[in-house]
Fold:
Amino acid sequence: MGEIYRMRKRKKDFREYVADFETTTIDEIKEDSKTEVWAAAICELDSGDSKVFNSMEKFMDYVKNLGLAKIGFHNLKFDGSFIVTWLLNNGYEYTEPSGKRRYDIAEKTFSTLISSDGQWYSIDVNLGNGMVHFWDTYKLIPMSVAKMGDPKEGFPIKHHKLSIDYTLHNGAGETITKEEEDYILNDIYVVRECLQIMYANGLDRETIGSCAINGFRTSFVDPRQYKEYIPDMSVKIPKRYDWVEGTFDNYLRKFYKGAFVYCEPDNCRKFHNNIKVYDVNSLYPSMMLYYISKNKFPIGYPRLFKGDGSDIFNDDNCYSFYHIRASFQLKKGMLPTIQIHGNINFNCREYATSSIVKVDSEYIDVKPELYLSEVDLAIFKEHYNIFELEYIDGARFRAERGIFDNFLRPYVEMKENCRDNMAQRLIAKLVMNNSYGKFSTSPDSSYKNPYLDENGVLKFNTVKKFDKKIYHVGIGAAITSYARAFTINAAQKAKSYDAFCYSDTDSMHLLADRLPENWEELIPVHHTKLGHWDLEAEPTKGIFIGPKRYAEYTKNKEGKYEWKITCAGVSPEGKKYIAENIEHYSDEQFVVKSGCKQAKIIAGGTVIIEKDKKLINK
Structure:
């Protein structure tokens, strides 16, 4: 099989590059459709030396001679499909990574790290002269190239994204114009400059989440304390808790829930005038910081209990999760806060208003089981009339305060004190906003193996695996429950004046004319302080359709009014079409012309196809 090369993670062992492809486009996919790279650019991170090639073959020939190399693409899922297709077409054999040494592969073989949900992390190839590691820079800097170089919202860098006509090239080998060369080089220069800024600030891992959790871990003076607070939750639950099976993570994951996203039915699908939009300044970090929120968090392993847990320790230094069964009805004038999963009688995407549901032609109180944190339970009792409440079992942790303060406080100060340094503010924002996600990491490490079908199209087999390193989903569940409570409490105050329209995670959209004059004394409002609501915008008109779907006539960056469209899954072109036909946005069926862009793998790699998108309102 030839010599085996081993890529060490120390930077001195390999040179680092940034690369990008420009590829041929098609309007309609046919059986014999194919795509290929017509321009490939690569730039060395340190020196800035760059090359542009007019075919995939020339690019890979150049890469073969780099020796040990790490090459970043700012969307590996797209560009990587061309690389893997080329490898499989040129005699390279796919091999599954073995253990932790995923870089130890033989000559003319490659391995990939592609999750079961289609997230591309890396491609490792032994090209003969050394290992080449392709990785996704977007996982470290989750911003588009255009936004990264935006003078107002991006990093303070020299280069900014340009534009060209993508449709002028039909294939590889054609002459690349000076304008086209400048365009593709400019893209990689933007990424290069931003990577250099990230690395200079110690963020040199391959995902921003990994950087954040590493920063949290190293914020502990004593490493033993970190292990005590964040133990291995993948261990099996002891036999003494014989009413629960599986691991601690399996059980506690049932209590983890996402953000509060809700559209008020009474104010839905109708146009409103004079809206106020409030956003929380750094919602999740502010919930994690004790000196701001006074919140406490579960640490270590829990003690499980049957019933309500009144027979075991329970004081202000504890944090509890409750598995209950309840009969309930939403109180008049209150926001619904409960989403029920795993019960066929309820739509898990909607908020339940009652435990009574219609089954066939009969109304039945199904008394669903709920998994609630102590914060969720308090809100449940406040918002619903509860007729029956059975405590089934639960988990109680010792709780600690301030566990995130040493880690997050420097970034808070960086964000607040570096108003003239956009790079520092962006870095602080990236780390803070990605500091909680790792705690809820799923153990599902299933991955995809690539192969070519009979038509030369890249396909995948999924391999099931469940051994991913996990952290502490109890902490993740506590963070998100605090965040939901913060948003729900403020939204409820607005609803009491019939002013609430819509909320999504850390935002509220309210009817200004219905708010009392002292509204901003009823909720914490400040332009920059963490844990405060900032008046983000004041649209003159708006309409709210449902979760992730609304439109507001508001000021753009230049201070001019225009329709700002929010519609999940719709492309920028589709949003422009909606803005031009805004009167139809709430129609029962509304077809958005060229409303979505779909990535489709064909022979050669990936193409982006524009399709109409049908919006259905019920």
